[in-house]
Records
---
Amino acid sequence: MLRQLLGKRLRILRMSKNYSQEAVAIDLNISPQTVSAWERGTRAIPIENLADVARYYDIPLSKLVHGLDQVDAFQLSDSGD
């Protein structure tokens, strides 16, 4: 389930930047099949690749992994107000 959610985020990020899976694969030095498997949630992203992916899409790692809504809600509830 978590792999599918992360995969969906990756696909949305890629498409929002109008990148092809092949372009992402070249830039991250992985195969297009790996990008596809990550996006479909059929293969987990190795921990050593998560930071590279977050940096590539210019998004904090926490937002990539946990999603925008969950992180923003956490930050609001932890603001001390």
Note: The longest helix spans residues 2-16.
---
Amino acid sequence: MDRSDRSYPAEVETVTTSEAKARLNALLAKVAQTGEPVMITGRGKPLAVLSAVTAKTRRCGQFAGVVSYRDDFDEPLSAEEIASWEAGAT
């Protein structure tokens, strides 16, 4: 099979659609455990790649110094502030 049109290494496991259908649970388990993708082919051409999901890491404090708030941000609003909001004032 010609693999020059994709960015996966030549040693990636390749299975036909029939094999993938018959062994799907085992392929899913292998991909989840090893993280290695599996190429699914049809009539000798790449159709899909089965690959593990990787969670995006969240950075705590990514807006430090960009977003600020007052120390009393969680205090109830005053009657004047509520009236201003209800009136649509900015």
Note: The mean pLDDT is 86.
---
Amino acid sequence: MDPKRARPDHPVHELLVRRWSPYAFDPRPVPPEDLRALFEAARWAPSSYNEQPWSYVVALRERPEEFERLLGCRRRATRSGPGTPRCWRSGW
């Protein structure tokens, strides 16, 4: 059996069983057209009462200063617990 395959206690959809959450970033860049498709899908995602409370932050490795700044925000958020880190909300 695939070591990354989930072993649920009860039947679940195959898509969820094969889902994988990595612990590290892949060094390969994400093609711009894939990013656009991802954000278009997110734009169409349902939200409670059509509030659409989400926001997204993208930093590319091709811009190392921005990428490192975003990683720093994520690390601080992980250590400080739930909630949006101030550096994400401040508009940089």
Note: Residues 59 and 67 are 5 Å apart (CA to CA).
---
Amino acid sequence: MTIPLGVAIMAYLASRPKCTAIPRAVLAASLVLWVPGTVGMAAWTWQESLPARIIALDSSVDLVAVIVASFVGSWSLRAHAMGATDDHPANALQ
């Protein structure tokens, strides 16, 4: 499930207008995808009679992971858009 979320966030960030603030766009994209996923997971775990503590821990970890991955992805997109320079770490792989 994490890979499709990451692809969706990266597709949104790549297609958005360049005039919007990057942190704001990253947070918006992350929350838009995190909320339905959390609601669905909470409903399922509640139906399976799992403790509320598990629901809270899972949703917290998921939120942190989605936001961190989104910021890393936006950094990658920004570096790619600016063009690789000789001191860029990606050039060491070539």
Note: The first helix runs from residue 2 to 15.
